[in-house]
Amino acid sequence: MVEGIVGFSDMLSLAQTIGIVGTMVLTLYFSKRQIQALSIDQETRVLNDLDEKFHDMAKLAMEDPSIVRVIDAHDYTDKREVAFSFYILWTCAHAHAMRQRKVLDDNEWAGWLQWMRNCFRKGTINETWKQIETDRWFNPAFQNFINREIIG
Fold first, then answer.
1. Lowest mean pLDDT: which of 16-25, 29-38, 118-127?
2. CA distance 79 to 56
């Protein structure tokens, strides 16, 4: 009879130990996932801050196209159009980066993708892209995306 009680007590201690270890493993797992999510959020915030700075810079360039020479001394025929084209391309690059980070869901991305295709098909941005692409102004992944998925 004493052996049955000791066996039950040992089994209870083992079950408690397994429960504690299991709880610790689950806590570690979810903590790691939360830290990864925070890291992605931080990267996204940094990209958004940089994007905001670029938007401010683009507004200045569109207000006074002569200042574009600071970053590109090439003599474009219509500096306002080139400045606006860079603004549109940078916005597309930002959307692409947010998609890579899984910030944009499939529906949002489908809208952006169609908008980009329309810009390149209906507007003059395709001509600007051909002029500036060789200078590698944008992220290589974005450039490959534009050349493969948008221009085809």
1. 29-38
2. 17
Residues 90-138: tens digit of each pLDDT = 899 989 988 998 888 999 999 999 999 999 999 999 988 988 887 888 8
Cβ proximity of 139 and 93 under 8 Å: yes
DSSP 66-127: GGGGGT-----S-HHHHHHHHHHHHHHHHHHHHHHTT-S-HHHHHHHHHHHHHHHHHSSHHH
CB atoms within 10 A of CB 108: 13
Position 6 scores a pLDDT of 62
The Cα–Cα gap between 72 and 61 comes to: 11
Identify which of 152, 96, 100, 91 has the alpha carbon closest to the alpha carbon of residue 126.
Answer: 152
Report how far residue 144's alpha carbon sits from residue 38's, in angstroms, rounded to the nearest whole number. 28
Averaged pLDDT for residues 72-95: 82
| pLDDT tens by residue, 4-15 | 556 777 887 888
Give dist(CA 40, CA 57) in Å, integer.
26
User: What does the CA dihedral 93, 97, 98, 102 come to, rounded to 10 degrees?
Assistant: 140
Backbone angles phi, psi at 82, to 5 degrees: -65, -45
